[in-house]
Amino acid sequence: MEGDKRFRELIDRSFVEEVSEGERQLIHDHIRDCDGCKRYLELTARTIRGLREFTFTSEPDSNAQVREILAHHTETMRQHNVQFKVWAAFAGALSMSIVGSALVYQVAKLLTVPMYFDTAEVQVGVLVFWLLPSFCSALRLLAAPGENRGIA
Amino acid sequence: MTLNMTAETETAKIARGLRERDMELLADLVERCQHRLVRYLLYLTGRREYAEDLAQETWIRVLQRGSQYNGRQRFDPWLFAIARNLAIDYLRKKRRAVATVSLPNDRDAMLLLPSSDPSPFEAAARSEDAMRLAGRLQILPPLYREALLLRFQEDLSLAEMAQVLGAPTTTVTSRIYRGLAALRSAFGEGDSHGG
Predict the structure, then answer these.
(1) For A40-64, what is the mean pLDDT?
(2) pTM for this predicted structure
(3) Chain B residue whose CA is closest to A8
(4) Which of A9, A40, A68, B95 registers the highest number of CB atoms within 10 A of its CB?
(5) What pLDDT sits at residue B6?
(6) Which of A31, A42, A44, A43 minimizes the C-alpha distance to A4?
(7) CB B146 within 8 A of CB B111
(8) Residue A87 domain-assigned?
(9) Please, are residues B119 and B137 in contact by the beta-carbon 8 Å criterion?
(10) Whether B19 contacts B79, CB under 8 Å
(11) Is the complex ipTM more than 0.90?
(12) Is the pLDDT of residue B180 over 90?
């Protein structure tokens, strides 16, 4: 009985995992003399064959529906991606504008004495010729049509 | 060797297409896998309407997370793993009230919950033997049903099954044996080692 149990485990394994040629021969030799194990093998084979005899039909338009949903999602994701890129570029341009203006202001301040400039004049100059144009450029990025942004 | 090379090229192509969100490739994958995906989800949930909905969700997830597919393994196990996670989350939401105790892990526990609705297996049976198995499949815990499908219909290797199920191969084989033992009794065999 214990021997039969071992053989039945081996039979199961032969259907599910790799078994050696020797083990296969062992099963073959055993079932010649053991009707119980022979029936067990036949039933296992029949069960597995039966499992392969199920045919599930999909909804007729199932594939087309999925493709349509995917196309819609792809477009939505593309738009989100473009929007994200634009805002990221704007944030970058704005930061560069502010940092750049600060640097230019510092340099201009150093030049006030040798160039006989007034501090107020330097501030106006940086504002008019650096900060405002760079800020407008950053804003223009947001307003430009997608294909002209050079980032999307 | 040639076959391996072909398989590598194919999976690499899929990985690249998914990264680039190539609609043509996605449409091709849907054509090839949708039927099997629905069948897998049907085995998992036991409900046709769940399976169809979850299959759609799975494809959306594939689109969103396509870059995570590395192209080193076959695409099918990766797809089934996504579908499985979605199905478990879905069932968890649906059946929050049911207690799940004494199981190896909470996610698998959700799959042991039997469906109360009629199963679609009888409708799909194409032979007398399949019809006899249909009744058993209906009451078989989905964990075992799933293991049998992946092994004998999808022909996944044990390693691939382990990847899909997120379980060691010993657990995978144990589920197959137990599932087989339960189904074998449909043909009048009560004596089996599996349990």
Answers:
(1) 88
(2) 0.72
(3) B193
(4) A40
(5) 57
(6) A31
(7) yes
(8) yes
(9) yes
(10) no
(11) no
(12) yes
How many Cα atoms sit within 13 Å of A117 on the Cβ side?
A: 17
Does residue A123 form part of some domain? Answer: yes
Task: Tell me the C-alpha distance between B157 and B165, whole Å.
Answer: 12
Interface test with A, best of B60, B152, B178 (most A CBs within 10 A): B152
From B30's Cα to the closest Cα of chain A, the distance in A is 6
Residues of A in contact with B21 (CB under 8 A): 74, 77-78
Q: Among candidates B112, B91, B86, which has minimal Cα distance to B100? A: B112
**Ranges in chain B annotated CATH 1.10.10.10:** 103-195
CB-nearest partner of B31 from A53, A63, A77 = A63
CA neighbor of A143 nearest in space, from A93, A75, A96: A93
> For the domain bounded by B1-101, which CATH number is listed?
1.10.1740.10
Q: Which residue from A12, A36, A49 is facing B129, i.e. has the nearest CB? A: A49
Give domain status of residue A126, yes or no: yes
User: CB of B107 within 8 Å of any CB in chain A?
Assistant: no
pLDDT of residue B194 exceeding 60: no
With CB atoms and an 8 Å threshold, state whether A15 touches B52.
no
Domain that holds residue A115: 79-152
Residue B153 forms contact with A (CB below 8 Å)? yes
The structural domain count of chain A equals 1
How many whole angstroms separate alpha carbon B109 and alpha carbon B97? 13
Rounded CA separation A15/A126 (Å): 82
